[in-house]
User: Fold these one by one.
Assistant:
Number 1:
Amino acid sequence: PHTAIIVVAAGSGTRLAGGAPKAFVGIDARSILRHALDGVFAAQPMQVIVVAPAGFEGQAESDLLAAAGERADLGRVVTGGATRQESVSAGLAALWGDIDTVLVHDAARALTPTAVIDAVADSVDGVAGVLPMLPVVDTLKKVDGDMIVAAIDRAELAAAQTPQGFPRGALEAAYEDAREAGVEYTDDAALFAAAGHAVRRIAGSERGFKITTQADLERARHLLTASAP
Ligand code: CTP
Ligand code: MG
């Protein structure tokens, strides 16, 4: 394949406080990482780089092998860094072979539908990045301290999900720019856009939410129970 997906799973999960690094907290019998990888390996064949917390590479390897089935040769585990950006960099450095398209995916978005992963992979051209997004449903205000200073038209806003897809060369150059400038970005699309590149949006999914808190974990558990055969 000419496409790779970097699944970042090296965070500690401070807000979830699940007793283990977030990627290894169970949703059901399967971990958050395992569910994320089940979705990835159900998509079109692509190289899969799992970025694990230091000391948890073996556990990540187990989840990778279990999810990969006959595609085990497409997968590899590397060690992450102190920030998400460093973890993505470690993933980029581990790419091998003839890869021209790179997706970056949060393991924490464990229930992301395979259709979204395929749609992102199929939408990357040689130039622009691709970002799955959902409409914003909340009424939003701009605030200053405890004062509301402006209303925000939510029609102008959308919420970003992952995987985010990019042409490899431009993404690597953008990561190098960010490293040299010492700037930390909130997501890969922001880092890519800061390097002067266009990013297009496609439709995300309600199931692509990020498991951040215990309430999110409960939501994931409920969705799995509700969709069980
Ligand atoms: N991530 C990573 N390396 C880091 C920090 C985050 O690979 N140093 C990954 C996480 O594993 C997660 C994704 O980036 O899949 C999104 O990050 P987040 O949801 O913030 O996860 P954590 O940083 O683990 O959680 P928290 O911020 O609550 O500690
Ligand atoms: Mg975090």
Note: The longest strand covers residues 129-135.
Number 2:
Amino acid sequence: MVRRVNEAKEVLLSNYQPGGFTIPSKGLYPFQWKWDAGFIAIGLAHFDIEKAKTEISTLLKAQWKNGMIPHIVFHTDTDTYFPGKDFHQSNLSKQANPDYPSTGMVQPPVLGFVLERLLEIATDKKDMLAFIGEQLDKVYYNHEYFYTHRDVNQEGLAYIYHNWESGTDNSPMWDAIWETMDPPHYKFERRDTTHVDPEQRPTNREYDHYLHLIEIAKKYHYEDAKIAAHSPFLVLDPLFNALLIKSNESLLALYQKLGIDNQKTKNLKQWQEKAINAFNKKLWSPTHGAYVHYDLRNQKQLPYISSSSFAPLFAPIVPPEKLVALNQTFQEKFSAANLYCCASFDPTHNGFNPKRYWRGPVWINMNWIIYHGFKRAGAIQTANRIKEDSITLIEKYGFKEYFDPRKKLENTTEGAYGGDNFSWSAALYLDLIK
Ligand code: 9YW
């Protein structure tokens, strides 16, 4: 198939904004999203290193006083997205950054390993290392925030209080939590469904749950301890915590490159050891042969396998015996010859939906994480399959937001869904073809 390198660059440049950040997709997502910014910077680094650095520094300017980096930064005024800044009201929090209206929640902690990747890509290593030196403590404070404000049991694992914090917004695994809630039927006007077929998006009732969790957080002025005490959604997510552990590892490597050995690196090492132990104790399910989510509010594992179950492969987490079982689960459920890798939810489960958002479709950022995971584990064939499938999907369908895992579709108009010219699909394509 024909390479789409120039198109990928055009997607990123056309989504780049004068404020020094890149929107994920025109119309649909008009602000800066946290984990998107990280993946986008990796793509930009392949052809415009200055923009890659700016993407990160713009995001970090919006950091809260307590170290939190928000999930969306509302750099501009536009009412084409719901829920926007007037709904989230970050100014309710004493910790918020008054100069940057944002949401009061987070997204997966990608910045540590993104900075490490930027250093690998940069040709001028000295310049990039100087940039990293300016930013690294900010990322450290973000990790400190997770371990001091988001770890209710002080066990080394950070909780999320909203499905949007997971990045995997409407995964079927949240259904078990929605069943414990009965939120009001809110009156609101969805904006996403004016851009994308509602069949490919969450339902209105799902949005009631999403909004209700935010209302609870707002009631407590986004104070973490109060949210932890009152939110019906309190989850230890294997994707989120695996990326945090991976980023800890990257921060330590980068501090070492900068010749820094201090209290921060000591703390990182301590958090890391505790986190890896707790991860394997609490998030491993022998029944599933995979890592799963843990519902802290109801004190039980959520019995579902998803692409998040394999994210630990990307970090120094998985011991040899678990690696064998995890690989077997992956081969049995996710690598069927009639499917592109990797479905975002267990394709053998009846909750699997190949078209709807995080309930089944392939996402390029998850593929990038799992590809690096299998590579790290030495499973090169599987890693290459994931890489090749990602490249094929993009070359076949373009830079869509998510892709149908089924190779044979009844209808030829199917295959790729959600937003068009989606930034992280373009960015990570540029990285994967290297
Ligand atoms: C939303 C921006 C975001 C991603 C999320 C993805 C989707 C929708 O788009 O969220 O309204 O926030 O689920 O992971 O960061 O690309």
Note: The chain has a mean pLDDT of 97.
